[in-house]
Amino acid sequence: MFPERFANLPAYAFPRLRALLDAHVPGGDVVHMTIGEPRHAFPPWITEIIARNAEGFGKYPVNEGMPALLEAATDWIARRYGVTLDPGSRVMALNGTREGLYNAMMALCPETKNGQAPLVLVPNPFYQVYMVAALSVGATPVFLNATETTGHLPDFDAVPADVLDRTGVVYLCSPSNPQGAVASRAYWAHLIGLAERHDFRIFADECYSEIYRETPPVGVMQVAEEMGADPERIVAFHSLSKRSNLPGLRSGFVAAGPKSIAALRQLRNYAGSPLPMPLQHAAAAVWADEDHVVENRRLYAEKYAVADEILGGVPGYLSPEAGFFLWLPVADGEAAALRLWQETGVRVLPGAYLGQPVEGVNPGAGYIRVAMVAPKDEMARGLTALRDCLYR
User: Fold this and answer.
1) How many CB atoms are closer than 10 A to CB 129?
2) What is the distance between the alpha carbons of residues 47 and 279, in angstroms, rounded to a whole number?
3) Phi and psi (nearest 5°) for 91?
4) pLDDT per residue as tens digits for the range 287-342
5) How much is the pTM?
6) Which residues make beta-bridge pairs with 205?
7) Which residue from 295, 322, 294 is spatially nearest to 219, judged by alpha carbons?
8) Sequential DSSP letters for 125-148
């Protein structure tokens, strides 16, 4: 009665975390540092825009995004990356980028590659939708360990040529979740060159692109344009969730070549869930404003400094280049998370819940992921308790 394609999926990270922790009493005031849900204030004028356009809830939304929203997205791409795109053919609005990261596989992954089922290369650890999207289209996910040895990004030079020849799609998150590593211009150029040579697409998850220390992370689309690469090779995903502290708005966009966008729009005609029109109006205004993004980065800069001060003496501590996660080494991630909860009330995520075993070893097993989303003082209290519990 039920399909087998998802029969072997592990439990999702947060139900697993609840099963691990919730039967135990927290050892202090609870500090939530698990989920990447921003808690900084979003722009206050958002609610006014939604209210002004509330009659739009009585209409079906524009499927691909209203023209003003698509123009706001391409204007932002031009300001941020120096790349000019036609809003009518190169972008589509998303109801959150998870929708796009999943449905892009449906629309764009080939059914076969060189006569065999396609492979999908996935960084390990990773955002779990990548794996499930690959399985949904009958592709085989291949997990590429992204460890300290590889700079916390996959080493594509270590992938055999015959694997690359079977590859239909490569997922890459930069800045990476959970490690906060940033793909350099040279790294992107090398991957794009491989895509051209071995005929695959790159799905670039750039949702953390606006949370960084000093230097804006280079974007895949600007590197592709500099190289003169085929625009159909690149599918880039962006979101307001992290940039603008609006995870509940469920607004993002995908940018790609015109044939790719046409395929994505066609799938959405049948299976999509477009953003309600009042929220599209709000999203267009948010993409057009940078002042709140600058302030958001300032707040995270303060948190980076707090984390460096509290954890700087921890062996193996790596201060992230970007994003808002700490990827902290421990002997055993599950044991550390449980101990921390029982002794301090601080709630973190075992790193193994974000990875898959490769040759019997899960690269996340010796880590915990800590989200720096709580207010600064609360975060400092949580990090201090974490340090004293696990590293002293």
Assistant:
1) 18
2) 9
3) -140, 155
4) 999 999 999 999 999 999 999 999 999 999 999 999 999 999 999 999 999 999 99
5) 0.96
6) 173, 237
7) 322
8) S--THHHHHHHHTT-EEEEEE--G
